[in-house]
C-alpha cells in the first residue's frame, strides 16, 4: 500500500525531500537506486500531468549533470528544484526524521 500512501502525498503536492525520494523509488524499474528518463516519465505520468515524456526529458536536462542518462543521489537536489519550479510541487529539505 506504499503506492496509495505516496499518492495521498502527491495529492497534497507537498512533501519533504526524503518523502520525494521514497516516492521516486516506486518508479525505479530496475531497483538500482538511480532514476532513468523512463522511470521519471512514469512518475510524472502518475501526477496526471500532460506531456509526461516531454517533462521527463526537460527534467533530465536540468538534473543529469554528468549526462549519463540517470539521476543519481548527488543530482537529486537539481531534480527537486525542477519539481518545485515546473511540476508545481512543494518539496522542502527538512525531514522530520533528521
Tell me briefly what this model is.
The protein has helices spanning about 1-10, 15-25, 35-45, 50-65, 75-85; strands at about 15, 35, 70, 90. The chain has about 100 residues and is mainly alpha-helical.
Structural description of this entry:
This protein has 98 residues and is mainly α. It has one domain (2-92): Orthogonal Bundle (Recoverin, domain 1). Helix content is 54%, strand content 10%. The chain has 5 helices and 4 strands, in the order αβαβααβαβ. The chain has helices at residues 2-12, 17-25, 37-46, 52-63, 76-86, and strands at 14-16, 35-36, 70-71, 90-92. Strands 1-4 form a two-stranded parallel ribbon. Helix 3 (37-46) crosses helix 4 (52-63) and helix 4 (52-63) packs across helix 5 (76-86). It is globular, with a radius of gyration of 12 Å. The two termini are 24 Å apart.
List keywords for this structure.
two-stranded antiparallel ribbon; 5 helices; EF_hand_dom; mainly alpha; Recoverin, domain 1; disordered N terminus; 98 residues; 10% strand; globular
- Arithmetic mean of pLDDT: 85
Q: Give me the count of strands.
A: 4
- Distance between termini? 24 Å
Fourth-tier CATH superfamily name: EF-hand
SSE blueprint:
Blueprint lengths: L1 H11 L1 E3 H9 L9 E2 H10 L5 H12 L6 E2 L4 H11 L3 E3 L6
Parallel strand pairs: 1-4
Antiparallel strand pairs: 2-3
Helix pairs in contact: 3-4, 4-5
